[in-house]
Amino acid sequence: MSYAVKEMFLTLQGEGVQAGRRAVFLRFAGCNLWTGREQDREKAICQFCDTDFVGTDGLGGGKFADAAALADAALGFWGDRADGRYIVLTGGEPMLQIDDALVDALHERGFTIAIESNGTLPAHPKIDWICISPKAGSDVVQRFGHELKLVWPQPGMGHSLADVDGMADWAFDHHLIQPLDDAHAQDNVRAAIALVMDRPQWRLTVQAHKYLGLR
Ligand code: SF4
After folding, report:
1. Which domains are delineated in the chain?
2. pLDDT (tens digit, 9 = 90+) per residue, 152-207?
3. Which one of 35, 56, 163, 209 is the catalytic residue?
4. Is 124 known to be catalytic?
């Protein structure tokens, strides 16, 4: 199978439990909760997206003919170091394209594989670190993994905390709250802090890459 990649680059993971870790970011094109076109945003399931995942025209992006070609390109971004190889498969929705061949090709090249997914498709069972970020109004089928990262306050979840409390039992090692980054960022940070103060099983995470000037 071929793969459509929006962009690929070497950086540090900026958020979540793995924050600060050297990582190749591989952003797949396409998402199942929004077309990525502004004219469709209002009728999309997910309406607060701030990521450009349309097309294959980003730095390091392109169409890759097979898993080996994509895994080789990822290794090229990582460079010569043999230790600590880590790749974050994101999007868009990465599970639209991840398959056995790609997972095997990345493992063969020594990568530990992380995924950042909206959870509406089952994560590939051989992925090493599963981070799910649920979106209001979607049907999350992937309810176990390593990291559940909920953007808060989230449009569509209202200010009712029933949805949050419902997720507290999902089988993740870490439950994280990430303040929504929009025009009301300060209010959102306060709301996220208040939630964590009230519900200690959740932990605050911030998008450090935005403060550090990382991509
Ligand atoms: S699910 Fe993720 S990639 Fe898709 S539209 Fe929402 S925030 Fe963007």
Report:
1. 3-212 (3.20.20.70)
2. 998 777 656 888 999 988 999 999 999 998 888 899 999 999 999 999 999 999 88
3. 209
4. no
